[in-house]
Amino acid sequence: MMIDLYIVRHGQTTWNVQKRMQGRLDSALTKKGVEDAKRLRDYLATTPFDEVISSPSGRAYTTAKLIRPNETNMKTDPRLMEIHLGKWQGKTDDEIYHEFPSEYDHYWNAPERYYNDGGETFTDVMTRVEDFLQEIERMHGGGRVLMVTHGVTIMAFLSIVKKHSLNNFWSAPISEGTSLTLIRLDKGERKLLVEASVEHLSLVSVY
């Protein structure tokens, strides 16, 4: 059965604006984050979904509810959560750069060497994303699935589908808030159809 995964990054949050690492912590959507989600809601208004699955994190779940306000059977899956960043969580990029210079360099420039005490590695994230994909392929009867997740998690989806090695984890462009990526699962093949589209953000706002 052919399955189309519509993968959305959550809307902009207050910590995104502050360049503060969230990981498993959370912060509220900004006004822009809410408005962008509403634009995506309108953009996808005529697209039927067989299932809606969100990361349990508040910023993702709130985005999912804005995109699909009438969904009565929305599911959450912890495998869609953001990378756990251990002691980095809640700190700004600048604070992390100065407190953990070697780890910070590995995070961005040598992801295969990145390790964060108390957190996840990129391999950990890719393992749970691969597990999620295999379950969808095995259990889902076909159709369209809307998923709301996080930036690093989306990079893991892209790395898996593009068959990138871990050192090329960041080779794809980083997804903006509410960006839309479309992956097709068909007879054991995984195809990237749309990558990090923000076409909906060019729509005229009525909010």
UniProtKB/TrEMBL annotation:
Its EC number is 3.1.3.-. It holds the Pfam family His_Phos_1. GO terms for molecular function: hydrolase activity. It is an enzyme of class 3 (hydrolase). The keyword Oxidoreductase does not apply. Transmembrane segments: none annotated. InterPro entries: His_Pase_superF_clade-1 (IPR013078), His_PPase_superfam (IPR029033), PG/BPGM_mutase_AS (IPR001345), PGM_Phosphatase (IPR050275). The keyword Lyase does not apply. Keywords: Glycolysis, Hydrolase, Isomerase. PANTHER family: BROAD-SPECIFICITY PHOSPHATASE YOR283W-RELATED (PTHR48100), HISTIDINE PHOSPHATASE FAMILY PROTEIN-RELATED (PTHR48100:SF1). This is Histidine phosphatase family protein. It comes from Robertmurraya beringensis.
